[in-house]
Amino acid sequence: MTLNKNLSTERSIQLKQYLTKNYPSKSKEEIKSELNLSWNYISRMAYLFGLKRDYNEGKNYKNLIKLIDLSDNISCYWIGFLLADGHISNRKNIQVNISIKDQLFFENIKNHLNVNLKPSYVKQTNSVRYRLNDVDTIGKLSELFNWHTNKTKNIPTIPKLPEPQLFSLIIGFIDGDGSIDKKGNSLRIKCDKSWKKILEDFYEVLTKKQKEFKITNDGCSLVYITSPNLLKNIKLKCLELNLPIMKRKWDRIDEKKLYKNDKKEIIKHLLNKGLLISQIIDNTKFSRGTVYRLKNEIKNDME
């Protein structure tokens, strides 16, 4: 009997040592697997030992894991959006405030991750606040992007990603912190000056050109694209990748509109097929002056 009592005491001490170290921070599944005990028994013993749990798995636990699938374009898009508009806390949850007018847009993240996120209304800013709770997933996201609480002093690091995934992340960031003018001719991203290098890297990915931008008078980094034709191509790529872009911004860009370079390529193609100028005008409905001017430019390009 003494032997059994001593054995029970020894197991209790071992259990207390294990739970003291792991109960606050490890997931339920890890603890259950390592102890081979039911969660009811584990949580009851933790209560008796006076231990509290910091780990908040919540109802969405295991669903948020899809967020850190960096091979998925849509997940990368939402990471970009959250990097722009989200705040990661020391308790490893992400808080994001969304304007009332964009609430339906943000519902897309719920569908992608298959989670039930319930917003709370913030009267002062006429916005809704969402919290993504999953310590394990968001902890891994924090590690992957070196993303900590203060994004101004501790700039996240964008890991090396394949081009489609990096493009998707940048578009998500634009939908969070960028703007497109009402005529659809200009795209701007503006952040604290500490983000200068990241924004210039984003610019290079989108335009295939390098450019150093000046810090604005109000201490911000501002990058911009002012080529309507390039913006159209960026939107077309968004549609090709099926990204859940924010319509109120991207609808300002008419992806069906033909710009000079588009018309030039069409005319070049028809000339190569042997069509006469009159036939090209009939086929394209371009003005005679446009066709002759672009035909001459094509000829000069070939000389």
What is the N-to-C succession of helices and strands? HHHHEEHEEHHEEHEHHHHH
What characteristic shape results from the CA principal axes?
Answer: elongated
Counted beta strands: 7
CATH level 1 name of the largest domain: Alpha Beta
Number of spatially distinct domains: 3
Q: Could you list the spans in which at least 5 consecutive residues all have pLDDT below 50?
A: 1-7
Largest sheet: 4 strands, antiparallel
Which strand order does the major sheet show? 1-2-4-3
Tally of helical runs: 13
Helix and strand content put the structural class at: alpha+beta
Here the CATH topology of the largest domain equals: Endonuclease I-creI
What name goes with the CATH superfamily of the largest domain?
Homing endonucleases
What gyration radius follows from the Cα positions, in whole Å?
Answer: 27 Å
CATH architecture of the largest domain: Roll
Helix content: 40-55%
Strand content: 5-15%
Q: Compute the average pLDDT.
A: 87
